[in-house]
Amino acid sequence: MATRNSLTSLYLSLSPLICEAAARRHSLSTLAPKSQMERAALVRSLSSSSLACTTRLFSRSPLRLSPPSLSSPALPRRSLLRRHWRLLPPSSPSSSRLLFRRPFSSLSPRAIATPPTHSSDVVGSRDDVAEKHGFEKVSEQFIDECKSKAVLYKHKKTGAEVMSVSNNDENKVFGIVFRTPPKDSTGIPHILEHSVLCGSRKYPLKEPFVELLKGSLNTFLNAFTYPDRTCYPVASTNTKDFYNLVDVYLDAVFFPRCVEDFQTFQQEGWHYELNNPSEDISYKGVVFNEMKGVYSQPDNILGRTAQQALFPDNTYGVDSGGDPKVIPKLTYEEFKEFHRKYYHPSNARIWFYGDDDPNERLRILSEYLDLFDASSASNESRVEPQNLFSEPVRIVEKYPAGEGGDLKKKQMVCLNWLLSDKPLDLETELAIGFLDHLMLGTPASPLRKILLESGLGEAIVGGGVEDELLQPQFSIGLKGVSEDDIQKVEELIMCTLKKLADEGFHPDTVEASMNTIEFSLRENNTGSFPRGLSLMLRSIGKWIYDMDPFEPLKYEKPLMALKARISEEGSKAVFSPLIEKFILNNPHRVTIEMQPDPEKASRDEAAEREMLEKLKASMTEEDLAELARATQELRLKQETPDPPEALRSVPCLSLRDIPKKPIHVPMEVGDINGTKVLQHKLDTHNVLYTEVVFNMSSLKQELLPLVPLFCQSLLEMGTKDLDFVQLNQLIGRKTGGISIYPFTSSIRGREDPCSHIIVRGKAMAGRAEDLFNLVNCILQEVQFTDQRRFRQFVSQSKARMENRLRGSGHGIAAARMDAKLNVAGWISEQMGGVSYLEFLQALEEKVDQDWAGISSSLEEIRKSLLSRKNCLINMTSDGIDLANSEKFVSKFLDLLPSESPVEKTIWNAQLSAGNEAIVIPTQVNYVGKAANIYDTGYQLKGSAYVISKYISNTWLWDRVRVSGGAYGGFCDFDTHSGVFSFLSYRDPNLLKTLDVYDGTGDYLRELEMDDDTLTKAIIGTIGDVDAYQLPDAKGYSSLLRYLLGVTEEERQRRREEILSTSLNDFKEFADAIEAIKDKGVVVAVACPDDVDAANKEWSDFFQVKRAL
Ligand SMILES: [Zn+2]
């Protein structure tokens, strides 16, 4: 779970798991404060970016704040898909391998730094101190790559291992990791991951985790379950806050209440629910529902099936997250036993990182570890390697599909290999990672390009190389494949791999990949993810298998060795043998065919109902009465607030610890050739970050839905002189990445929306000229002539939107509501919502019928954008590099047309305001309700941030998630437009959730709150507002504030309002919220049966739209 802020709210709610969708790189923490202010805007921009991989798009999670990744969008990482997060995960990568797929940046965690406290450097020998606390030093190394001293200790009594990493990074990180290999698919590790954070010995409240979300300054707070391990990481820049977080986490994992409290297991895992003996029994449970959502998504089913088929003989052959069909087989006894065995110091690996005192770390740990004796857990938790097959295997699986479209063309096929029967050495692993990037890393990479250009499928599936488990795997395939073409896809993949092995890669491709990887390693831009956490996940990827934890941190030598080998022997000599040995000649191959099955969802539902009916029939009246009583009791417990003394047990900062001023980002507003230029002098280690922003307001209304495809075409269509492969190679060789996406938001107090297209790029400052030349080339010279490629963009975008509808239905619902409430929302929905999906469906045919018309529309978009007057430049770098870059900016601007093309278009469109249900094949719902609260006369005050976060973390968390059984429930206030939205995520309910939303006003009016609680809410909000940001993210947020007219004075005023929030503000806010109950619009993305039932109960409440 992780999270904070505004988003937090979101997150939290969203929490846990996986979030796969979320996946892929979503982050909780991303949302920072400012974010609140910028959130909505971000959402819009993100939602509509065509470039982005699904993740970034629209999810209403932290993501929203992060701009799309600069590096080429990579394929989703499979294991991330398989990882379960308590809250939505941060938008970042991590991964044991070098971070090829790191997102460019994101607004990120918060920071209120405290001065470093390096007492150990001054005071005595560290070894003596270690000895005193019961540790022995195993090894000590200085890691140049991260300028850190790292010491590995062993706790003498229990054998617990500790990596203590010291450096000057204020964003301190702690993590404790247990090996937790499951034996079945009951989801024990996942349910435990949720449950241990629900109260412990020292912190006897319902959810200390949520209290930390509400009231700490954490820059990261979450927990996640892998197929073979469970991680509990926290981070903060404030030392006192950091140690508070560490203590709550240590107490949670070692002394959780869930092993004595059956009701926690029921709530987080599963239970039978019966409100009244005359009604039907149902299954409830947070993890149960979360996993139902996961098992409704075809890409997830594919990933799970592949993993289980590749590893039939070890722990990876089952699902650590839990299969909803199997979860109800789990008993409480098994659950407790699993905790007793594996959550033990002897089975733990612990990580500390940052500028705090290393001695203090050991002292804190010893207080916990000394309470245990050694156990044999670490022998029992070892993962056995899977032996290689002697011949390939084929598996056919069904996935739940809608009625729409031609089912014959909705097959998926994916080839998967287990690369080796043991872990690879670092050098081979690095080479394989490099090979993966060469084959699949960018749209121009040969394997990816050939598959997409074949016309055999809509989009790529399989994540390429996956190396987060004991043995590496490789997967690649297509979805949207016609029945008759499955074999052709398999042949094409095999042939292409063979051809790559025979012919090798073009030297420019190799150089581009090398530059991209090196840039990314040296920039070390982990976005919203704390750097220390990214290092921890890399280290743990080996350490967890009893290998050297230092080695994965030291990339420099193996990278240089690989470079040297490539230049001496040629890339073919390096990579061809790898393709042959690990893929072509490797018999451990699993081919998975997935077939759409329109009846699967209802069949699964029916089977579940039948089982529950049978159960009910077998029960006596007394049994039923008892079950109803237990259901009641559980709900009562969930809805009873924690007593104040228990709440006070969670340590909290005081308002005195909070700086009175917002975080300052330097900005100089200047002018070059008549164009406005913003400059942010920040220490970026010689990287130049720039955004070239074009106002979109003269674009014709009917061209808006083409904008995302226009952006993609600029990067992926090529010029007269350079085909798109060459263009992408140039970008890879000369820069750290370029991305293009639309950004839309309302502006407070103004009718007109803010709408721009942003070209975002980064490069070493010495290559500023190349960067601006490339941006110019992309904008002015790209030709919109490649019909075949454009057709692919359309099918890929359609596949991506369909995926988003299933996995991030809350984002789709939010966009739809916004589109009914304001123009900015309408624009955004045209470029990233259901309207966009409908546009793409129609466009697919039009590409063949009227390509000339489309091509000239793309040209028209370009003409209406490009002009010096329409342009704004934002730059972030060290001062001298900024000054040196100005001449290139000037040249770039000279090349732009000087006249504004057309005058401003008046956009004036909104969707009709009726309630809507978007029906999709799923087992869980996403329910939204929203209204513009400025229409009620409400005027923005800083307290609104505190209140909306509080509503999410208390009322909605308790009612929608805890007792409602949804994975998440939260609210979101777009302070620019005034739209306040309620949203739920993977929700078993529909109308019942709307009742909860409608009860919010009364909840606020009746709220009682002591000073401690209020202080906590304020501090938590400041934590969001002061999100920790790397320099590029600071420069980017400053740009967004400029575009949205948020001044420094306003930031200061809001901050003061936040700090002085009173209970009375909560009560006043109730009136504004009431408008949503009375006049709000409802949009749900939901399963057909629930919508039918709702329309019967509330006579035709929903207008129904079938989207898949
Ligand atoms: Zn979960």
Could you walk me through the main structural features you see in this protein, from its secondary elements to its overall organization?
Its main location: mitochondrion. There is one protein chain. The chain has 1108 residues and is an alpha+beta fold. Helix content is 45%, strand content 16%. Strands 1, 2, 3, 4, 5, 6, 7, 8 and 11 form a nine-stranded mixed sheet that branches. Helix 1 packs across helix 38 (1011-1025), helix 24 (621-639) packs antiparallel against helix 35 and helix 35 (943-963) packs across helix 38 (1011-1025). Mean pLDDT is 87; it is low at 1-82 and 88-123. Zinc ion binds at residues 16-17, 84, 86, 190, 194, 287, 290.
Sum up the structure in keywords.
single chain, 1108 residues, alpha+beta, 9-stranded mixed beta sheet, 6-stranded mixed beta sheet, 42 helices, 45% helix, 16% strand, globular, disordered N terminus, binds zinc ion, zinc, metal-binding, Peptidase_M16_C, metalloprotease
Nutshell version of this structure?
It is built from 42 helices and 28 strands.
Find the count of extended strands (DSSP E, 2+ residues).
28
Unreliable parts:
1-82, 88-123
How far apart the termini lie comes to: 31 Å
Counting helices, strands and paired strands, the structural category is alpha+beta
Give every kind of bound small molecule, once each. Answer: zinc ion
Helicity range of the residues? 40-55%
Topology, please?
Elements: H1 5-14, H2 20-23, H3 33-48, H4 78-82, E1 84-85, H5 119-122, H6 126-132, E2 135-143, E3 148-155, E4 161-166, E5 172-179, H7 188-195, H8 208-215, E6 220-221, E7 224-225, E8 229-236, H9 239-254, H10 262-268, E9 271-273, E10 282-284, H11 286-294, H12 298-310, H13 332-342, E11 348-354, H14 358-369, H15 377-380, E12 393-400, E13 411-418, H16 426-440, H17 446-453, E14 459-466, E15 473-481, H18 486-503, H19 507-523, H20 531-543, H21 556-569, H22 571-584, E16 589-597, H23 600-617, H24 621-639, H25 644-649, E17 668-672, E18 675-681, E19 687-695, H26 707-716, H27 724-734, E20 737-745, E21 754-764, H28 768-781, H29 787-807, H30 809-821, H31 823-830, H32 834-849, H33 851-865, E22 871-877, H34 879-894, E23 916-919, E24 926-932, H35 943-963, E25 968-973, E26 979-985, H36 991-998, H37 1000-1005, H38 1011-1025, H39 1031-1043, H40 1048-1059, H41 1063-1079, E27 1081-1086, H42 1088-1097, E28 1103-1106
Parallel strand pairs: 4-11, 12-16, 18-22, 23-27, 23-28
Antiparallel strand pairs: 1-7, 2-3, 3-4, 5-8, 5-11, 6-8, 7-8, 9-10, 13-15, 13-16, 14-15, 17-18, 19-21, 19-22, 20-21, 24-26, 24-27, 25-26
